[in-house]
């Protein structure tokens, strides 16, 4: 009787849905993947083009990698973007950690309101943020340049750094902190020995997301850039306006490699940490 019941249960169990069960979704997915990744592959290939055009193949060469390395203005824009992204990432990540820990002590309504205010830049059009930021720095007498760019990037990177950190904190529950309290840990000891180590995966994810968002930003950077403080996206846009050059493909390829390396290192570290705690 038991075998018959289990057999019936197996027969009547709902079948897992597969992609082929949704007509047209498979074809749309393939088209979307092609549209997304084929341009990246083409850009990478044409970074090794020997010709002067970004889209006309003239043979394999590393010529444009040397041209990029010797372009002082381009290297300066890379350094400007890195400085801005590093400062914005540090400020946004530290603020997000403090906010995530503080907002957990608020009532549900107060927590929701505070989070909604802080994450509002995620839904506000970036052009609106750019115009408002430019008007604000003019109002307080701060000229466009490095300081304005760092402040603006740190501000709009906070929601991106906050999301993984807050998600990680919510996933931990309260048992770890209750156990630390029962063992007599002070607030500082709990933060240093319990909270911070447990939040490391969320902190790393939030910091990487903030760094990439800052490095990639164009609209706000274009509004706040100045002579001597031109971020890389703004500089690349000016290059494209003068004519598509393989140098643009080289920079895009190097940024892609950087993203892959950072993502791989982060993944391996998280896997090692998971194995250690398993």
UniProtKB/TrEMBL annotation:
Localization annotation: Cell inner membrane; Cell membrane
Stored Pfam families: BPD_transp_1 (PF00528)
InterPro entries named among the record's database cross-references: Bact_Polyamine_Transport, MetI-like, MetI-like_sf
Topology within the bilayer: Multi-pass membrane protein
Residue ranges constituting the ABC transmembrane type-1 domain according to the UniProt record: 78-266
TM spans (from-to): 21-48, 78-101, 113-140, 146-165, 194-213, 219-240, 247-268
Function noted in UniProt: Required for the activity of the bacterial periplasmic transport system of putrescine and spermidine.
Protein name, per record: Spermidine/putrescine transport system permease protein PotC
């Amino acid at each position: 009787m038991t075998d018959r019941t289990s057999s019936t249960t197996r027969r009547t169990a709902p079948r897992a849905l597969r992609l082929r069960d949704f007509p047209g979704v498979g074809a749309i997915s393939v088209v979307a993947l092609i549209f997304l990744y084929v341009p990246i592959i083409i850009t990478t290939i044409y970074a090794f083009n020997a010709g002067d055009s970004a889209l006309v193949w003239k043979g394999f060469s590393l010529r444009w990698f040397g041209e990029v390395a010797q372009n002082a203005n381009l290297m300066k824009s890379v350094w400007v973007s890195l400085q801005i992204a590093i400062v914005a990432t540090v400020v946004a990540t530290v603020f997000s950690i403090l906010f995530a820990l503080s907002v957990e002590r608020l009532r549900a309504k107060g927590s929701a309101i505070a989070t909604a205010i802080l994450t509002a830049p995620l839904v506000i059009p970036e052009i609106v943020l750019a115009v408002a930021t430019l008007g604000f720095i003019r109002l307080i007498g701060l000229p466009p340049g490095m300081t304005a760019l760092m402040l603006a990037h740190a501000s709009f990177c906070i929601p991106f750094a906050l999301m993984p950190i807050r998600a990680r904190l919510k996933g931990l529950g309260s048992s770890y902190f209750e156990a630390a309290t029962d063992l007599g840990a002070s607030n500082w000891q709990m933060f240093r020995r319990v909270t911070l180590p447990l939040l490391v995966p969320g902190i790393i994810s939030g910091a990487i997301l903030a760094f990439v968002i800052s490095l990639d930003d164009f609209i706000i950077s274009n509004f706040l850039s100045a002579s001597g403080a031109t971020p890389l996206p703004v500089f690349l846009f000016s290059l494209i306006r003068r004519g598509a050059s393989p140098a643009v493909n080289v920079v895009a390829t190097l940024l892609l490699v950087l993203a892959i390396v950072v993502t791989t290192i982060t993944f391996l570290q998280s896997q090692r940490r998971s194995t250690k705690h398993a």
